[in-house]
Design brief:
Radius of gyration: 38 Å
Largest sheet: 5 strands, antiparallel
CATH architecture of the domain at 3-158: Sandwich
Order of helices and strands: HEHEEEEHEEEEEEHHHEHEHHEEEH
Strand content: 15-25%
CATH topology of the domain at 3-158: Immunoglobulin-like
Strand order of the largest sheet: 4-1-9-10-7
């Protein structure tokens, strides 16, 4: 079997169980563990992909502490070999009350993440649950299509047979084993069938492996492409040589005028090069004029939004003497985090005005950079009015209740937006019109 086909994936996981479920670590306070370690712990597990995408959430189980089994996982279609496994347990209110300083407060039971594992399915160790003893706490055991596996760092001990058990004496009667002719025929057919199946599996795996560019075959495509191009060039040269011989036989080309023809050909090439370059300069000049005209029109469109206000605006623009100087007179200001937070806390009306201004600023930068000058920006801008976002997840607006999570994302969005402004300013400074 090829190594690509024998590797384990998400879709091979069938069920998951946990051994020695506990709310406490093994090196914790032994007195505290003795007081609160009695009874079952309701638990469930969460299965995620390596990118944090939710794959499966199990049901709640609390039937055992030594081995907590869950239902079989539905068929997963993922092809990744890495998963994230979280075990969530319900901490009783008695433990939370004993931990807290105020014992008179009413505390409800809370669900907490007991452990988190980042598991590589191709680096697990195979175990036989009936023949080994798992000593670690909250140890996961994954049931795959080819057996049961646990973490590679987990220490497992083989279960020894009890000493001193009575063993029955082996009978001294000698048995003679015999095989019937029909059994031998069946065995022969089974061996033939198994060999045919093995050959078909090898053929199918070879065909599948050929469709994937492995390291040993990654240069085959390049070699084939080079060989095809060489063959095409050879056929073209042969065709040209035949045409040359025919022209020489017909007297169209004379050897005495070869040098003169070559000189005239070089002069025509030089003339063509000069004309092509001049046309290129004219086209680029028209393109620059069109870009500056579009930028001037864009400034006129956004003039009524307040972005170009000298006191509260974000863009500084003075009327240029000609349209060709529009890019030189356009100055984009970066956002100041401290000033924005101070203005947003003044009033609700002021906060809404700032959100709309930030949305207009994002739209102006997006149209000027990507649509007019085709300049690449390091971070993706997405305009949604006063609720615009950056990179699809970082909001560039203030909310009524600024929680810590939204505030951290807003600060990151402002930093990304300033990076885009710096990128576009450098592009305009180094832009060379004809």
């Amino acid at each position: 079997m090829k190594p690509f086909l024998s590797s384990r994936r998400q879709r091979h996981v069938r069920a998951i169980c946990f051994h020695n479920v506990s709310l406490f670590k093994a090196n914790g306070n032994s007195k505290f563990m003795k007081e609160h370690a009695d009874g079952f712990v309701p638990c469930f597990f969460i299965l995620k992909s390596i990118r944090g995408e939710l794959l499966y959430v199990s049901e709640v189980q609390s039937d055992s502490l030594q081995k907590l089994s869950f239902q079989e996982i539905p068929k997963l279609n993922g092809t990744s070999a890495m998963i994230i496994l979280n075990l969530v347990g319900k901490v009783p209110s008695e433990i939370l009350r004993s931990i807290s300083l105020n014992t008179n407060t009413n505390v409800d039971d809370k669900w907490c993440v007991l452990c988190t594992y980042k598991i590589d399915l191709n680096k697990l160790q195979f175990i036989n649950e009936d023949a080994v003893l798992i000593t670690g706490t909250n140890t996961p055991v994954l049931e795959l299509v080819d057996g049961c596996y646990t973490l590679p760092t987990e220490n497992v001990k083989p279960i020894k047979e009890p000493i001193g058990l009575h063993k029955r004496n082996i009978s001294e009667i000698k048995l003679k084993y015999s095989l019937a002719y029909s059994s031998l025929l069946k065995l022969n057919k089974l061996l033939e069938y198994s060999s045919q199946v093995h050959e078909e599996i090898n053929e199918i795996s070879t065909k599948i492996e050929e469709s994937f560019p492995l390291h040993k075959n990654q240069h085959k495509w390049y070699m084939k492409t080079v060989q095809k191009s060489i063959e095409t060039l050879l056929t073209k040269t042969k065709k040209k040589s035949l045409e040359m011989t025919q022209l020489e036989k017909n007297g169209t080309i004379s050897h005495s005028k070869t040098d003169v023809s070559l000189i005239s050909q070089d002069e025509s090439i030089n003339d063509d090069y000069g004309s092509i370059y001049s046309r290129f300069v004219q086209i680029k000049d028209r393109l620059d004029q069109l870009r500056f005209k579009k930028l001037f029109q864009l400034v006129g469109i956004f003039a009524s939004t307040g972005l170009f206000d000298t006191t509260k605006g974000y863009i500084h623009f003075e009327g240029p003497s000609s349209i060709d100087d529009v890019a030189a007179y356009l100055k984009l200001k970066p956002l100041d985090i401290g000033i924005l937070f101070g203005q947003a806390n003044e009033s609700t009306k002021r906060r809404e005005h700032i959100n709309s201004q930030l949305g207009y600023y994002l739209l102006f930068l997006y149209l000027a950079a990507t649509q007019i000058f085709k300049a690449p920006l390091p971070y993706k801008l997405m305009y949604y009015g006063s609720t615009s976002v950056i990179e699809g997840q970082y909001p560039l607006y203030f909310t009524d209740s600024m929680i810590a999570r939204h505030q951290a994302k807003l600060i990151r969005a402002i930093r990304y937006f300033n990076a885009n402004i710096l990128q576009f300013k450098q592009f305009l400074e180094n832009y060379c019109p004809t």
